[in-house]
Amino acid sequence: TTDQVPIFDIQGWTDNLFPEAEGVSLANKLRQNGWPVKIAVADAGHPLAQNKAAMWSVLNAQANAFLDHYLISGAAVPLDSSAQVTTCDGSAGATYTSGTSWAGLAPYRITLSSGTQKATTSAADSEVMGTQTDPITVAAVHGGSGACVVLPATGSLPTAFWDFPVTNAFTLLGEPALHLEVTVAGVDAEINARLWDVSAGRSSKTLVTRAAYRFTGTAGAISIDIPLQGNGWNFAVGHTIRLQVTQVDAAYLRPDTFPSAVTYNTMSLVLPTPTAPPSTSTTGPTTSAAMVTQLAATGGRGSRGLSEPSCRRSA
Question: Would you call 114 helix, strand, or coil by DSSP?
């Protein structure tokens, strides 16, 4: 007998209340102590999660096999990690599986970086996308359910964003890691990030994932590292990856009551992917973009479990 009860954790990429990192962090810690744990991540849970029948059919099949094995001595099941790609139609996205670890799902990296300077302020950075991307607002519009957030790509553009054209299709699988070199005016500042997939005709953009960070300290030059919440997402050739930063993300988050301004001197975004990208990239810059570099990873960073944002004073 054992007191280590087998666990099958189903976690949501797009659950803005309990994001993927929380479940993965728990699974990793239990596995480190020899606990029998299986984990599956998909577009499930609280909004913005869509909880589609096709997606749940895949998860339910895994859950039934897991319960059959441990409750009625059914066929053995692997204690693996799996992740479904999020889709915006009625289908279930592709499922990736790693028999070793969560980090093994996405062992490669694509890095997007730019030296184009941007700026935001806590007073002038309010924009309508805060309400349109708020999970509670989205659920109210869709009868209590989540949905893909699809907005016009043109018109009222965000004040600070970088665009990167996709010249080779790839799948994001895990938590993007955002690094910013910034100059902060103020002792307290809110920095929010949104990752968008802009359509080939640049008529619409779909929210892929987001992040929130709060700086407190002495004004000046700061290095900031922020993990985004993560997702499984297919980026198609001809689309554009847009990384937006804003100091106001209401009504999703309460705006900071301290005045501040942030200048973004450089940025880099590391995207975990399950397949090796091309060894070289011929992508050139578009509006607000500097370069696209594609790299192979040496470990699991970027598709890890729960991680804390960090900042450090620049020399």
Answer: strand
> How many CB atoms are closer than 10 A to CB 77?
18
Phi/psi of residue 60, each to 5°?
Answer: -65, -35
Residue type, 256: D
6-52, pLDDT tens digit by residue?
999 999 999 998 989 999 999 999 999 999 999 999 999 999 999 99
| Closest C-alpha to 191, from 182, 200, 199 | 182
Burial level of 65, CB count in 10 A (0-12/13-18/19+)? Answer: middle
Average pLDDT, the chain: 86
DSSP secondary structure code for residue 302 in this structure: T
**In percent, how much of the chain has pLDDT > 90?**
74
pLDDT digits (tens, 9 = 90+) for 252-267: 888 889 999 999 999 9
| pTM of the predicted structure, to 2 decimals | 0.87
End-to-end CA, the chain: 57
Task: Extract long-range pairs of 29-35: CB within 8 Å, 24+ residues apart.
Answer: 31/101, 34/4, 35/4, 35/7
> Is 213 within 8 Å of 195 (Cβ atoms)?
no
What is the torsion angle, in degrees rounded to the nearest 10, for the CA atoms of residue 70, residue 75, residue 76 and residue 80?
-90
